[in-house]
Amino acid sequence: MAPRHDTSFSRGMGPVPASTGIGLKASHYRALLETRPSLSFLEVHPENYMGDGGPPHRYLEALAGHYPLSFHGVGLSLGGAGPLDRDHLARWRALVDRYSPALVSEHVAWSVHAGIAHHDLLPLPYTEESLAVLAGHVAEMQDALGRQVLVENPSSYLRFAWSAIPENDFMVELARRSGCLLLLDINNVHVSARNHGFDPRAWLSAIPAGLVGEVHLAGHAGIIVGDREILIDDHGSRVRDEVWLLYRETVRRIGPRPTLIEWDTNVPDLPVLLAEARHADTIMHAREQSHALAG
After folding, report:
1. Cα separation, 294 vs 272, whole angstroms
2. Cβ atoms 109, 76 nearer than 8 A
3. What's the topology of domain 20-294?
4. Does the N terminus or the C terminus of the chain have fewer Cβ atoms within 10 A?
5. CB 106 within 8 A of CB 148
6. What is the pLDDT along the chain (295 residues), one digit of tens a residue?
7. Across-strand partners of 107?
8. Half-sphere exposure of 291 (CA within 13 A, CB side)
9. What is the C-alpha to C-alpha distance for residues 218 and 236, in angstroms, rounded to an integer?
10. What do you get for the CA distance between the two ends of the chain, in Å?
11. Distance of alpha carbon 12 from alpha carbon 124, whole angstroms
């Protein structure tokens, strides 16, 4: 499959606008349906909707009538050494056919080995061998779903003793080989940069604008290990100022993209999430306004 560098993903109500969405939480189902706030899209983990019916599907079907959906997988184990789970892929395909999500994405990670699910997004070394396996699995996912997918860069806390390819180069080559686009998680870049001592701006500037189909923003936490602080991508707080600054610089370079506010632990009331989304939109619109004034 040849690379595609546009950011149009069609569904029944059209492509996702280059503005901000939020992750859909059960605690917000009713409030979203009652108030219908202005949002670009809602993101769900498809693994939470792989049953045939029940209240989750009833609410999701109702919300899909008002918002584009993004399916963000966490369990396919694209980076695993073994084959992809064909049953899991079939469940994915059934959901894609049922809801026609505007965005479909997964992670550069592995989570299954020898048939055992570890319920975590585990890292892989950046080598030619792991790149070949990952690119093959991404292509297989796209073929099974009949869709181009986006793949997200991870956060990391330890480094492998041997990783021959810089992470940003690894991500770019993955997109070029498999035909996927990249889901650029700016919080993950910041977390990994602080943990490993590299420049996040240099990392981000090496990603071609045409490969970025979506952006994620989230909060993080810090823990003390020995005599140093390790940042943890816990999605449990507001986006930090340092991440907002990286986002602003990235939008200036690549232009607006569909952007998600991730908040998965210590989930706040809906107005808090909406305020974060509005702030991201303000940053994107400021870029457009400055370009209009310059013109």
Report:
1. 34
2. no
3. TIM Barrel (3.20.20)
4. C
5. no
6. 333 333 333 333 457 889 999 999 999 999 999 999 999 999 999 999 998 889 999 999 999 999 999 999 999 999 999 999 999 999 999 999 999 999 999 999 977 666 666 567 778 999 999 999 999 999 999 999 999 999 999 999 888 888 899 999 999 999 999 999 999 999 999 999 999 999 999 999 999 999 999 999 999 999 998 888 999 999 999 999 999 999 999 999 999 999 999 999 999 999 999 999 999 999 998 866 665 555 5
7. 152
8. 12
9. 8
10. 38
11. 36
Q: Which two tokens stand for residue 130?
A: 């792991």
**Rounded to whole angstroms, how far apart are CA atoms 185 and 266?**
20
pTM: predicted TM-score of the whole model, two decimal places:
0.91
Tokens encoding 139: 């292509």
Residue 250 CA to residue 225 CA, distance in Å, equals 31
Backbone angles phi, psi at 73, to 5 degrees: -75, 150
3-class DSSP assignment, residue 29: helix
